[in-house]
Write a structure and sequence with these properties.
By secondary structure, this protein is mostly helical. It folds into 2 domains: 178 residues, no CATH class; 169 residues, no CATH class. 73% of the residues lie in helices and 2% in strands. It has 12 helices and 4 strands. A hairpin with a 4-residue loop joins β1 and β2. α1 runs antiparallel to α7, α5 runs antiparallel to α7 and α8 packs parallel to α11. The protein is globular. The N and C termini lie far apart (54 Å).
């Protein structure tokens, strides 16, 4: 099912994340499966421990800015707090990968085994099927763009090191100024290497999450299309859409999905909460300090809010459509042709126990087709409520804030 290009991209990306210490299992190009070694485990443990210390340093710096250096009146506070929240998110993802590393490797191998096996078993002449080739080509392009982008993004940390030596998050700020230690070339080189490494940890964590998510979502969507009885232009043979085969294959997919959500479900939930908090922080700080913020801080807050809202809302919409299509697939099984009433009776009873595939944590939070709309609405209402509760004491002052913003932007 998967192309040679995709396996090469997986090999390159996993080799990068294992070298940095984000993950414990690179792809074996011969078996085309992920494998673990003791050395990779030790490297991952060391990397997560060092990155934890970095996150602690970032948050201590942010708290010091808040308590002793003017708080929101400090022009560097907003960017520092934003980066602190992002570093906390990356730490959560890395810690989640570390805690559930065995389940995650098992789930990724199940993906690489099950879906190609499904295509080989149920789709005749798969290599000549134009529709399947189109879907797989789109997946290859998406993964290629993700790998190419995220492999280069750590360079931004080097740019930050050179262009912002006086930023509170700059590693040289921890060196004493006595004897010009913070100007020492050798120490600055070490800090530059360390900062680029933290950038690799951050961006490669997101790369691993994005690449595996893309492969999984495209693969499951293709299978769900074949499960849906009333879908047009099926690629799989009609034998798949019989009661016995449908139940067996759907349970297989659900087991793979449950294994992935066991290790990644809480990552989605935590990410949703933290990104919502970042949006509220940016909106509130921008509105309440509109007249006092400098242009760079105002631009930073506005861009962060827009990018996070659009990006996360798009992700929620995709995962919501994924859940919705899974639910429609189960409903379409009412149109199955049964051999007799006994088969229909057992299939109906067993089918009622099946649940749609959903991203998130069952019983805590799962994403559906309305989650994106609710997310955007909650950001707007949450910003207004926060502004009224914490920022502006009465409605007259609130009106003055909005009037000053409208007059400035017009």
């Amino acid at each position: 099912m998967y192309s040679n290009l995709l396996y090469k991209l997986l090999y390159i990306s996993t080799k990068a994340v294992v070298t940095i210490g984000v993950f414990i299992a690179p792809l074996n190009p011969k078996t085309r499966l992920f494998y673990k070694t003791r050395n990779y485990r030790k490297r991952n443990t060391l990397a997560v421990s060092i990155f934890t210390c970095w996150v602690v340093f970032v948050w201590i710096t942010t708290i010091k800015l808040w308590l002793y250096h003017g708080g929101e009146q400090n022009p560097q506070y907003h960017a520092t707090y934003g980066f602190s929240c992002v570093s906390l998110l990356i730490f959560w993802m890395d810690a989640n990968f570390y805690i559930h590393q065995d389940e995650l490797v098992l789930g990724l191998n199940r993906i690489l085994l099950y879906f190609p096996g499904f295509v080989e078993k149920w789709i005749p002449n798969a290599k000549k099927n134009k529709k399947l080739v189109l879907y797989l080509t789109i997946m290859d392009v998406l993964v290629f763009l993700e790998v190419a982008l995220f492999l280069l993004l750590p360079i931004t940390k080097a740019i930050f090191f050179i262009s912002s030596p006086h930023n509170p998050l700059h590693p040289r700020q921890i060196l004493p100024t006595a004897y010009d230690l913070n100007q020492n070339g050798f120490l600055n080189l070490i800090f530059l290497i360390f900062l680029v490494w933290t950038g690799c940890m951050s961006w490669y964590t997101i790369m691993l999450f994005a690449v595996m998510g893309t492969i999984y979502m495209v693969s499951v969507t293709l299978v769900m299309i074949e499960f849906k009885i009333n879908a047009t232009n099926h690629m799989a043979s009609a034998a798949l859409r019989t009661p016995v085969n449908l139940l067996r294959e759907y349970i297989n997919v659900h087991l793979v999905h449950s294994l992935m959500m066991q290790s990644l479900g809480w990552t989605f939930v935590f990410m949703h909460g933290l990104l919502s908090h970042i949006c509220l922080f940016c909106n509130f700080s921008l509105l309440i300090n509109w007249e006092t913020l400098d242009k760079s801080s105002a631009t930073f807050l506005a861009m962060w809010s827009i990018i996070v809202q659009i990006g996360w809302a798009t992700n929620l919409q995709v995962t919501g459509m994924f859940h919705s299509y899974s639910a429609k697939t189960l409903k379409s099984w009412k149109g199955i042709h049964f051999r007799d009433n006994l088969e229909k009776k057992y299939f109906t009873k067993f089918g009622k126990t099946l649940k749609p595939i959903a991203i998130g944590v069952e019983g805590t939070m799962t994403f559906n087709r309305l989650t994106a709309i609710l997310f955007l609405r909650s950001i707007i209402t949450g910003t207004i409520r926060t502004l009224l509760t914490l920022g502006v004491p009465n409605a007259e002052d609130t009106a003055n804030v909005f009037n000053s913003i409208s007059s400035t932007t017009s």
